[in-house]
């Protein structure tokens, strides 16, 4: 049952999964050469939702690119804008008030939980269970409400600014967030009993879809995919940015390399994010949210800048080559799901198609982020 | 053989636990809203499409400087103005001065990404977000808003 089975038959047929297919969660197309129900060869085809975000980043001024970054990954948008503002702040040496940094961490972690919750629901739906999606969406709704009250939008946030934030959080938000934390803890226990213990769920994931640490290194996979393969890598710990070094949290690592390990990593990550949120709420300092001195026009000095952050899907990097003008000379986005998806072709060889789709779900693909 | 039966037993138990949870959820209060008949109040900071703010006389606060137009990443704002001469008393003397008056403020909402750069760039506090969200339409032209006209309609 476990391990790839290599079958070479003379009679194979080609199966197109996507670009419009519910299991691919977007416009991803997988061209599969099938032998019965076994995949002989798979080829992922991209480009159905390519929007030239990198080129737009080169044609627009730095503040004008801000809304673009949240359109990459609509489920965890906050982390992507975080990378951009951090990169520009370092390039243009803008100082960020401490309160702003704390609120940023708070928002990114809330967004991480909401993203993982939605992934959880969609993943279980891929495996045939519809009910958990409804519960997950209800919990996610509470987080979205919190974030909407502060940022004004529900998915594609444009909340971070160079040097600080768009607007401050109030006591209502802090109290409401404190009230949501125990609720989410209770829900996580519920999911554990409802889904993690479920025999059908376990049988479909245990030992299925092996992605080894070597394969992760080969394709540059990061995030829960790499952590499910036993690689202890998280940008928040390994290259701390923002104020992450001041929080006490663990990085869940599983060594089983199967789909269940990746599932477990994400479920544990939600608990760790809750811990970070609790600490951030306790430590939240008073003060301004924008620096007193901020350049009116942002023109980073000539140079090459790179900033990586840990988003819900893995390590997202942004590279900005500045030629000293108000536009970037080169604007490169390194998106985590692109690397995570690249290993799908190799990993699914010899697998049964339903196992391959379960593995694809465990990769947590967001297609607009792959295509950019 | 024993492992086989214990797996069946544990499997059935896990299914029963799951069913227990869904059964409990069945009696929980409904959290959804039957939308067109009931609506949710939008939060204070909700970002709808932009709207002009009026001054005490009911005229737009906008001075047609065009900062919002320049700040917009998608170029969805287009405004026009004309110079109007007016008389003002300076040191006891009447002098004619010119000022810009807004004649057109069009918002092409089809390309707007609601980033808020226009609201932030405005030095006169003349633009704000509306709370409008019921904007579905079959017609593309319905999303080209004439904000000046909307302001007048609001006042009348």
Q: Could you give a quick summary of the protein structure above?
A:
The complex is a heterodimer of chains A (372) and B (156). Chain A is an alpha+beta fold.
Give structural attributes:
heterodimer; A: 372 residues; alpha+beta; Cytochrome-c3 Hydrogenase, chain B; three-stranded antiparallel β-sheet; 8 strands; globular; B: 156 residues; Alpha-Beta Plaits; 2 domains; two-stranded antiparallel sheet; 28% helix
Description:
The complex is a heterodimer of chains A (372) and B (156). Chain A contains 15 helices and 8 strands. Chain A has 372 residues and is an alpha+beta fold. In chain A, helix 4 runs antiparallel to helix 5 and helix 5 runs antiparallel to helix 6. The longest helix of chain A has 29 residues, at 98-126. Chain A is globular. The model of chain A has no long low-confidence stretch (mean pLDDT 86). Chain B is an alpha+beta fold and 156 residues long. Chain B folds into 2 domains: 2-31; 50-155, Alpha-Beta Plaits (2-Layer Sandwich). Chain B is 28% helix and 25% strand. Chain B has 4 helices and 5 strands; from the N terminus they run H-E-H-E-E-H-E-E-H. In chain B, strand 2 and strand 3 form a beta hairpin. At the A-B interface, helix 2, helix 5 and helix 6 of A face helix 1 of B.
Question: Strands, helices and their partners?
Answer:
The complex is a heterodimer of chains A (372) and B (156).
Chain A (H helix, E strand, L loop, with lengths): L12 E5 L11 E7 L2 E8 L7 H7 L2 H8 L7 H15 L6 H29 L4 H21 L8 E2 L2 E2 L5 H26 L2 H7 L7 H7 L4 H4 L7 H4 L20 H25 L19 E9 L2 E9 L5 E7 L1 H7 L1 H4 L5 H10 L4 H5 L1
Antiparallel strand pairs in A: 1-2, 2-3, 4-5, 6-7, 7-8
Helix pairs in contact in A: 2-3, 3-4, 4-5, 4-11, 4-14, 5-6, 6-11
Chain B lengths: L1 H25 L23 E3 L14 H5 L5 E14 L2 E16 L8 H5 L5 E3 L14 E3 H9 L1
Antiparallel strand pairs in B: 1-4, 2-3, 3-5
